[in-house]
What does this fold into?
Amino acid sequence: MDWFNKPDESPWGKTAPLQVSELSAIIEGLLDDARLQGVWVRGEVTNYTHHSRGHRYFSLSEKGDGSTAAVIKCVMWRSDAERLSFSPAEGMEVIVSGTVRLYAPHGSYQLQVKEMKKAGLGEKYLLVEQWKKELAAEGCFASDRKRPLPVFPEKVGVVTSETGAVIHDITTVITRRYPTEIIISPTAVQGEGAHREIAHAIRRVGELVDVVIVARGGGSFEDLFEFNHPDVVRAIAACPVPVVSAIGHEVDVTLADLAADLRAPTPSAAAELVVPDRIVLLVQLSELRSLMTASLQGRIAWAKEELIGMRDRLRPERFLRRIEEQKTTTADLADRLERACVTRIERERLLLAELKTALDSRSPLAVLARGYCVAEKNGLIVKSVDGLTQNDRMKIRFYDGKADVVVERVDHERNL
It folds into this structure.
């Protein structure tokens, strides 16, 4: 039967068959699950191969009941394998971190390993990662709580072992750079229970000094493990003064380093950070002294020039000359003012004369001067004889005076 001519009756139904690459892509997409990214796996190294190009191929096995064993293939590329601090071997129990990937050429999945720890150290490493998350949530590593170091500390506290080169190096550097009081708070720096001593030493010295150095020499991850303990980290975060950490070598980073206000690569570098260099300070002081001297000399020179100028301006003959100049100016102003006043007065006089002429021409007195007079009765002007009777007393106003009269007779005349 021709199945291709009858797709509805094909063995695989209505869906066309997948290509191998398509199926691989689907599987690879399923492996992108977040739970398969950056996973930690513990197992025993088997079938270990160190490739000439630096890659490491091996399997991790987990023995089950009887002869049953769960196995997963692993690969660690050279770029990651170069960071290994040990050489894996057959039968070694390790803890690895990596991502599950599909190896399409073989149609199998494998674990691409990024990190590898020996099982004992691996457990501690996982514990440190757990502590790191918890302490970060508490804000112990927050950048906004970092404090600046004091510029001129009077007392420096040092938390370290009272024996060994660390305390000697710190003391030597501080004494050479900027002699100040050093208070040592001794503690064990490794070993079981050392974290409690370290935390206590930090709390003990924090109230007595201006800055604290927490230091120890280099060592392995296990040697420095106590400085990852939450007790130490919380003691550093709660310290009332800034803390500088100098734990291990520069490449070693502990949780105490993350909590400290400042991290130094070595104990000697920490000592250099907490105190200034007196030689540099003396040089700076000398430079400031020179600048101040130059500035003062400049001010003095300027003041001398200003004084000479003032002295020149205050000479008697200069004052007399200025007085004469002001007198001439004043006389000229007075003359101009007088002329202006006279001119203004004359102009105002002419204006007043014109106004007087205009007023005189309209004045009732001018009419009276031509022979007319004004009759008043009881303070009122009499405009008609109708308002008069015989024996009425009146006032007659002339242009040059008044007269009292009595009406003897009233004659009415009508002009038509």
